[in-house]
Amino acid sequence: MIKGVIFDFDGLIFDTETVEYRLLSDIFAKHGAELSLKRWQQEIGTYTGFKPFEYLCEQTGNKLNQKELETQFNTLFHEQLTNESARSGVEEYLKEAKTLDLKVGLASSSNYKWVSNHLQNLNLIDYFDCIKTSDDVEHVKPDPELYLQAASCLGLEVGECLVFEDSANGAIAAKKAGMSCVIVPNEVTEAMEFCQVEHRITSMSDITLKELLETITA
User: Fold this and answer.
1) Do residues 169 and 146 make contact, with C-beta atoms less than 8 angstroms apart?
2) Reduced to 3 states, what is the DSSP secondary structure of residue 186?
3) Whole-prediction pTM value?
4) In this predicted model, what pLDDT tens digit does every residue of 108-129 receive, in sequence order?
5) Catalytic site residue 10?
6) Nearest partner of 17 among 135, 168, 144, judged by Cα
7) pLDDT tens digits for 160-213?
8) What Å distances lie between residue 99 and 94, 96, 127, 205, CA to CA?
9) Catalytic residue flag (residue 26)
């Protein structure tokens, strides 16, 4: 029986991933280079230490001012994110989870400051009973540690948790943790190859949480 739901953040609740990829692609294109979607997908849902502007220098063979490019990117990134809202159906799922008396957690490979600031701006932070981020673990996704900590924090067994993910690395982490997982991909993750999960939906606005739970537990 599912007693709690655990959400990823970037790309799942708030689609920072598509905005980030579009901006980086534009910068690469202006320098006559390409950041392929396939290459960028390797970085989604995890942390590898990949430096996009160092990669741009390698692609172009030019010694570009990486610090300047990073500052330019960060300014544009934050400007665009202020105009973005949560993905369709997200708040409805959070409200419905409370109505269904489910515990609500979050597990993100990003840091707490990043996650909490955006959740506050989106007026969503109060829905969460527990938030676990990269600040809490030694290894981020696809390692299962974040999800295991989130379950423990919620006071639940892994089999009582349903995870919502948008990335392949996140789905692997959820399944390694022994949890059920539903994929809700975004524009930059929809073509990813995912491990076997319980269900996949295009948007949380396509089906109610109650209907989804009935489908999974049938």
Assistant:
1) no
2) coil
3) 0.92
4) 999 999 999 999 999 999 999 9
5) yes
6) 168
7) 999 999 999 999 999 999 999 999 999 999 999 999 999 999 999 999 999 999
8) 9, 5, 11, 17
9) no
